[in-house]
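Entry 14. Ran structure prediction on the chain below.
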Amino acid sequence: MKKNRIKKFLIVSTNVLLFGFIMLVLPFRNPVEGASSSDYHPQSFWYYPWGTSITHKGVDIFKKKGTTVRTAYPIELVLFAGHMPGKGGNCVITLAPGWRLHYYAHLDEVKTHPLSIGGTIGTVGNSGNAANTPSHLHFGCATLYPRPWDIDNSPHGFRKCFYLNPIPQLNKAY
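Output, structure tokens:
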């Protein structure tokens, strides 16, 4: 009986892991409707110094307030949708292909709920610590498993093993 449970657990776990990585073949898109590479700075990831955040661990995509924001991949599981006091303001956190977490922050409105799958998640805004900045989406990407080869000597460079630069993907999305 115990061997069957272990075997079933291993089969399910393997399939779940494989599914997460196979989903990487899904098309990546800019999460801000109508945005192009001219709407973000190509070197803003891991920019230092960056206010109270110290190091900028994502990319800011600037667009008019109220512009639709959708998940970067057609299939992402919404883990959190709501307001986070402090830096992010109105934000959405999703589980994306490749066992990555996507962080969509400074939204004007959140238009999704936990456990929904992909699609429209909100609108561009400037909530949280972005209240005195032009409207934009802060888009961050983290990995659930460490990538020690990404560690470098930059400020907080040891944390780079958990943060991914979304700019190369954004540059290919057009």
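The first strand starts at residue 47 and ends at 50. Will compare against last week's run tomorrow.
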